[in-house]
Amino acid sequence: VSPGRCWSFKGHQGQVVIRLPARVHLTAITVQHITKDISPSGTVISAPKDITVFVSLLGMDADGEEESLLGTFTYHVEKEPMQTFPLKNVLLPRAFSYVKLVVKSNWGNPWYTCIYRVQVHGRMENQTD
């Protein structure tokens, strides 16, 4: 993870839809940003703050397919740069193909928000324990 090598978007709100390589029963999501120590400005105000996670089987724009909310959480810049959040509703009876990460705010940067890494955790639909 290097400063500036991130997925960035204009302003403090944005979203990304991730198509998973297989249908997955999701359990958690990990979000990463850089630390103040390696930030050229000495701040991490471009880090995401309030994040919501949705899932869908057919895609986020598919007709008739509703999104399922799996969690709303806060990325804390004073904690570790890589933070894992357990997802709610993990007992949903089906696996999903798409994850939508919605950033509702950042830590104060009015121009842009950066996310350095997103990891999705779970069990593939046909995987046995």
Automatic annotation (TrEMBL):
Main subcellular location: nucleus
UniProt key word Transmembrane: yes
A matching Pfam family: Sad1_UNC
Name of this chain's protein: SUN5 protein
Residues covered by the SUN domain: 1-125
Keywords: Membrane, Transmembrane, Transmembrane helix
Organism, scientific name: Furnarius figulus
A Gene Ontology molecular function term of the record: protein-membrane adaptor activity
SUPFAM superfamilies (UniProt xref): Galactose-binding domain-like (SSF49785)
GO cellular component: meiotic nuclear membrane microtubule tethering complex; nuclear inner membrane
Subcellular location: Nucleus inner membrane
UniProt KW Signal keyword: no
